[in-house]
Design goal:
The structure holds two protein chains of two kinds. Chain A is built from 19 helices and 22 strands. By secondary structure, chain A is α/β, with parallel strands linked by helices. Helices cover 72% and strands 0% of the residues of chain B.
Chain lengths: 510, 328
């Protein structure tokens, strides 16, 4: 097959006050899987958006097979075979339309000559695209709003491969996927490389995945390409991380010793979340970090939200300091000093249109009010304190949160609860889409919360993280708790074993 | 688990068809109480007659709301269309076809102002059309000189009208069966456009997720404009129907249809699990509104209490429709 090459010369991109890309020279040819790694804010997404036509204001030159091209619109990029699958799946899907239409949307927009829809053909092509992904359980007639996050991701990837595609950009595709789905995706990605003359640009924070499937990688830092090399068996995540951060990095986060107190928070036989949480019981001691493990769809998020009152509770009780709590909505949970840092931070965790200062006081605005009037001085004082303590990288506390990077948004989402001074902190996938540097900061933060005698519930599908930060782990499957494990006596294999539905009792009996 | 999934499916089915079920229940209820007085051919035609205008305005609103637009000023604009229609027929003596054409063109031209505010000035739909409501009322009444346009009246500048009589064809538009046929045609056309052409799907794509639609290469401004123009045509048709039915263009003759037509769209939103404004749902919604009105009148509910009962039943249908919206 004829190789097609996409390259850039001195491509720069400037936002007011920020140089997002600085004279980037990059080259990729079809038939390779190329990883682009870097801390959040390193310019990966900006560069990919240049290719995708969403950053029309770039300077410098892009070449396709040596011919200079001007990628100034998404349509132009797509016509030249550059497809992108964005990390935030909801921004690219139309929830109220069917799966078939969502998969075929670009095709209908750009290629369909006839005004009339040929529903049969649309559904057939969509089903074929899904079949190439080996996804059989998604009905092309169902509405996208009824799909899970992982299924939505599959729909988007199906959309990308369905179109004329030489360069496929996957922006953190595996973040919301379970291990099986990730493997499935890798299978597809590899077969695309071999059989269809496609180059895949793969952005990921999971470096072991990069080593697993990529042929070469590019490291970006502060808008520049700092390293570019093929992936060899000798390549280690440690050396990539060092290039990303420009400094060496302790790979495993050491668990800090914290004095564990008495059992003070307990969940008994909790059911709810429309059947996605069944008869869950567990407890938390003061100073303890309790992990909730399980695959995507195991009910971790649902459990967190049921405790927090945002999903309906159908049975069971929540007990804090020996007193049963009445929690029917999040407001009551907050009143009872329970905090939730939700998974989808941009949608649920922070108010992106508001300033850093307002966000950091949003959970306890009462504290900063006198007779219902907000005292701006106190709000700012509080904001300055947390920006300093948490190391939130922002030009000013008046900055709108949507302009911060993912990791810093997450710090704001955590910070607003720290200001509220809660007893129980629930974290739902706090490190999703966060770079290694910020991840360390967040771990440190969570440890500090525990040290002050609070309880932490930490739900994550990253088992390695659970093993390094928690004291005990509960493993969930199908909305139920399968096993309770003591972190220092367990390992990833054991967690995975329970995550796929093995029951602790069954194992003991066997 | 399976039991609850089954229950869920049943519940979802009931919610999806809540409006239709309410409609059927209304029919059963009124038939039981009033028998053939309600369930007669003549009365069925009455219901269709009564719902036709609401339906057409509802269709106009459906097309606007498909791409997540909104038009508060649709019915004030329709009043202007009605003035244009009757005045060009009576005052200027144009024949019926030309009058209809003029009405549609005038409405399209006036809708440019709406589009200008929304697309060029980027005023949110709701606010822009709120302001335009007053503009339409004022401009329209300035044109007709503050009085109705009807037979035997002079034009607003005092000239003798070119016609003194309305022809049969003129009045036929507002009578059965033509008004019903027009209504069904409007529903059919909107249904085909929205559900079976790519243009309709683009409108829905914009309504579901504007950003995604834009990134897919849909020219969202162009399509919002197209939706506006289609809406304008339906508004003009609605205005023509109202004036033909009333044999004149009374002052603010269409203004009161706004809330009913919006109610029809909202009730119809969830019909069949569509979860978006859709033509057939709007038809069902309008039918529900007018069946209620008709049945209650036959049951001798005083006309001044009618709105309360109508509102209550509508609220129930809406509660059912929105109960299926997932908790956030």
């Amino acid at each position: 097959m004829e190789k097609i090459t996409l390259s850039t010369k001195d491509v720069s991109m400037e936002y007011p006050g920020v140089k997002a890309l600085n004279k980037v020279n990059f080259e990729i040819s079809t038939g390779e899987i190329h990883a682009i790694v870097g801390a959040n804010g390193a310019g990966k997404s900006t560069l990919m958006n240049v290719f995708a036509g969403s950053n029309p204001g770039y300077t410098g030159q892009v070449f396709l097979n040596g011919e200079p091209i001007e990628i100034r619109t998404p349509n132009f990029a797509k016509k030249h075979g550059i497809q992108i699958v964005y990390q935030e799946v909801d921004t690219a899907l139309v929830p109220s339309l069917s799966v078939a239409e969502n998969i075929m949307l670009n095709d209908i927009v750009m290629n369909q000559k006839s005004s009339f829809m040929n529903w049969g053909a649309v559904r057939k092509s969509a089903a074929e695209a899904l079949k190439r992904l080996n996804v059989t359980d998604i009905n092309v007639r169902s509405l996208v709003q009824n799909l899970t996050l992982a299924e939505k991701q599959m729909v988007l990837i199906a959309r990308a491969i369905q179109a004329e595609c030489n360069f496929l950009i996957l922006d953190e595709p595996t973040a919301p996927l379970s291990d099986t789905e990730t493997e499935e995706l890798f299978r597809v990605v590899k077969s695309l490389r071999e059989s269809e003359n496609i180059a895949i640009m793969f952005i990921s924070h999971r470096l072991h995945e990069v080593l697993q499937i990529c042929d070469s990688y590019t490291v970006m830092r502060n808008g520049e390409i700092v390293h570019n090399a093929p992936v060899t068996p000798e390549t280690t995540t440690k050396e990539i991380v060092e290039k990303m951060l420009g400094r060496s990095f302790e790979e495993n986060f050491p668990k800090e010793e914290v004095k564990i107190g008495d059992k003070f928070f307990e969940v008994r036989n909790l059911s709810g979340a429309y059947g996605k949480v069944n008869n869950v019981s567990f407890y938390v001691k003061r100073g303890e970090i309790v992990g909730i493990a399980g695959l995507v769809g195991a009910g971790k998020s649902e459990l967190c939200k049921t405790i927090f009152g945002s999903y309906k509770k159908t049975g069971g009780s929540i007990i804090l300091d020996g007193k049963e709590l009445k929690i029917n909505n999040p407001a009551q949970a907050v009143k009872n000093r329970i905090a939730l840092v939700p998974e989808e931070r941009r949608k649920e965790g922070v108010l992106v249109q508001e300033t850093v200062a307002f966000n950091l006081s949003a959970a306890c605005l009462d504290k900063f009010c006198m007779m219902s009037f907000v005292q701006t001085g106190k709000v700012n004082e509080n904001a300055n304190r947390f920006v300093r303590d948490l190391g939130i990288k922002t030009p000013s506390i008046k900055q709108h949160v949507r302009n911060l990077s993912g990791g810093n948004q997450q710090k704001v989402a955590v910070g607003k609860w720290l200001a509220a001074d809660c007893d129980i902190y629930i974290f739902d996938e706090p490190t999703k889409g966060v770079d290694v540097g910020a991840k360390q900061d967040i771990f440190h933060l969570i440890n500090n919360i525990a040290r002050e005698g609070n309880g932490v519930i930490y739900a994550s599908c990253e088992n390695s993280e659970l093993l390094s930060i928690t004291d005990r782990i509960y493993v969930m499957f199908g909305g139920e708790i399968m096993a309770e494990l003591v972190t220092k006596d367990t390992n990833e294999d054991e967690i995975m074993n329970y995550s796929v539905g093995t029951r602790a009792e069954a194992k003991a009996g066997a | 688990m399976q039991e609850s999934a089954k229950n869920n499916n049943t519940a979802r089915f009931l919610l999806n068809w809540a409006a239709v079920i309410t409609l059927v229940l209304c029919f059963i209820f009124f038939t039981l109480f009033k028998g053939s007085l309600f369930l007669s051919g003549i009365n069925m035609v009455n219901i269709l007659l009564a719902m036709s205008i609401t339906t057409v305005f509802g269709i106009a609103a459906t097309v606007t709301m498909a791409p997540d637009g909104f038009d508060m000023s649709a019915c004030t604009l329709a009043s202007c269309s009605a003035y244009a229609f009757v005045s060009s027929y009576l005052w200027f003596g144009c024949n019926l076809a030309v009058s209809i054409l003029i009405t549609i063109v005038v409405t399209l031209i006036m809708y440019q102002l709406t589009m200008f505010l929304i697309l060029i000035c980027k005023v949110p739909d709701m606010l822009a059309t709120c302001a335009l409501m007053f503009v339409h009322q004022g401009l329209g009444q300035w044109y007709i000189g503050g009085g109705a346009v009807s037979t035997g009246m002079k034009s607003s500048w005092g000239a003798e009208p070119a016609r003194t009589q309305l022809s049969d064809a003129f009045s036929a538009i507002g009578r059965a069966p033509y008004i019903i046929i027009i209504m069904l045609a409007c529903v059919f056309i909107a249904w085909v456009i929205l559900d079976f052409t790519k243009h309709g799907r683009f409108l829905y794509a914009m309504g579901g997720n504007k950003q995604a639609a834009k990134l897919s290469g849909i020219d969202v401004k162009k399509y919002r404009y197209i939706a506006g123009m289609i809406t304008a045509v339906f508004i003009a048709i609605g205005g023509i129907m109202v004036s033909s039915r009333g044999s004149s263009a009374q002052v603010m003759c269409c203004d009161n249809y706004l809330m009913q037509s919006l109610a029809a769209v909202f009730v119809g939103r969830s019909v069949g699990g569509a979860e978006k404004p859709n033509a057939l749902g709007t038809l069902v919604g309008a039918m529900l509104v007018s069946t209620l009105e008709n049945g209650l009148t036959i049951c001798a509910v005083p006309y001044y209490v009618l709105p309360a009962v109508k509102g209550a039943v509508l609220a129930l249908a809406l509660i059912a429709a929105y109960a299926s919206v997932k908790e956030q």
